[in-house]
Write a structure and sequence with these properties.
Layout lengths: L3 E6 L5 H12 L2 E6 L8 H13 L5 E4 L4 H7 L4 E6 L1 H7 L5 H17 L3 E7 L10 H18 L4 E6 L2 E4 H4 L7
Parallel strand pairs: 1-5, 1-6, 2-3, 2-4, 4-5
Antiparallel strand pairs: 6-7
Helix pairs in contact: 3-5, 4-6
Organism: cyanobacterium endosymbiont of Braarudosphaera bigelowii
Protein name: Adenosylcobinamide kinase
Catalytic activity: adenosylcob(III)inamide + ATP = adenosylcob(III)inamide phosphate + ADP + H(+); adenosylcob(III)inamide + GTP = adenosylcob(III)inamide phosphate + GDP + H(+); adenosylcob(III)inamide phosphate + GTP + H(+) = adenosylcob(III)inamide-GDP + diphosphate
Length: about 180
């Protein structure tokens, strides 16, 4: 049985490092699925991406997948483990989808997660712990990401929260909400 893992937490909390650690332990063959869109004009963004790249083992394959995440999950076969970093970037890349298309995108993602024969590790940001964004696009992002993370969390085997320098296994301490 494949293992499906979700790792959530705030910015710079260590989510990606924890995911990389788990991927290394789970499998020899890891495909790192980078959902961020590179912007060579943004030095700070490029520095973040480089930091992630430099930390990964050289034998890991990296795919840049800003949009077609379900296609990659559907076409990958064992013996690979997919480390998808991050769901927040993927959601941001798809904010131009109308509500109906977005709902279909989520349904397709959840279906492919359920049926995939490979190990999956998702990294996702938690954005809803602060103030409500003052602008519509910020609220749309926060709401779509929060809803998707909630749905993924009820469908994976294990969910970890990385916060304050600690990793908490929510699957052991918590209870899944069955209404999603």
């Amino acid at each position: 049985m494949p293992k499906h893992i979700l790792i959530i937490g705030p910015t710079c909390s260590g989510k990606s490092e924890w995911a990389e650690n788990l991927a290394s332990k789970l499998h020899d063959k890891v495909i790192y699925v980078a959902t961020a869109i590179e912007n060579p004009a943004d030095f700070q963004w490029q520095t973040r991406i480089k930091k992630h790249r430099d930390r990964r083992p050289p034998d890991w394959k990296t795919l840049s997948v800003p949009y077609n995440l379900t296609e990659v999950i559907n076409t990958t076969r064992s013996p690979f483990c997919l480390l998808i970093d991050s769901i927040g970037s993927w959601v941001a890349n798809k904010l131009d989808e109308n509500d109906e298309d977005w709902d279909q995108t989520v349904i397709e993602l959840l279906k492919c997660v359920k049926k995939t024969p490979v190990n999956l590790i998702f990294v996702a940001e938690e954005t809803g712990w602060g103030v409500v964004p003052a602008y519509p696009l910020g609220r749309l992002f926060r709401d779509r990401l929060g809803s998707l993370v909630s749905k993924l969390g009820t469908r994976v085997d294990t969910t970890y929260l990385v916060i304050g320098g600690h990793v908490i296994n929510l699957s052991v301490l918590g209870q899944k909400i069955q209404s999603n």
